[in-house]
Amino acid sequence: MIHIIYMAAGNSRRFGSNKLLYEIEGKPMYLLTLEKLKKASEKIPESEIIVVTQYEEIVKKAGEMKIPVFINPRPEDGISLSMQIGLMSVRDTDACLFTVSDQPWLEADTVVALTELFENEKKGMACIRWNGKTGNPCIFGQKYYEELMEKFRKTRYTRFPVYQDSKDNVV
Predict the structure, then answer these.
(1) How many CB atoms within 10 Å of residue 135?
(2) Across the chain, which distance is largest between two alpha carbons, in Å?
(3) What is the pLDDT of residues 49-69, one digit of tens each?
(4) Is the N or the C terminus of the chain less surrounded, counting Cβ atoms within 10 Å?
(5) Distance of CA 109 to CAs 8, 14, 115, 133, Å?
(6) For the segment 71-98, what is each residue's pLDDT rounded down to a tens digit?
(7) 3-class DSSP state of 15
């Protein structure tokens, strides 16, 4: 089982307003991304999406889509708390794919291809690389959960803790 942890709790400080509600193609940004993840999840055997957010509108929409929601009570603590909340809610799963909500051009097929790569290569991690930069979505196998939780407890990440030089990573 792979859980897709959709993190939609950020405060959008640099954007000036809640960018997740910013409309693109007639829909809020968060919804465009969430719909693509839902489409991807339907193509990925044994997968489920969960949402981590602070926003009532996202809670409501995820509920309508039958997607479980977990509340981030302190989004100002950074992405690490959303990752912790998501990971703690699905600790027994084989792998977790972490993704953010402000990627409206992320395609469902990219997410499907990433999960297939992760499963076929039998590595502990898999990440997307775009223009030479490794980023998210990013998948971590269960063997990394404790290490990730320790990193989350020690520091306030504003970016994904990607192990770029690891031999256990496929991009």
Answers:
(1) 16
(2) 42
(3) 999 999 999 999 999 999 999
(4) N
(5) 21, 30, 10, 19
(6) 999 988 878 889 899 999 998 999 999 9
(7) coil
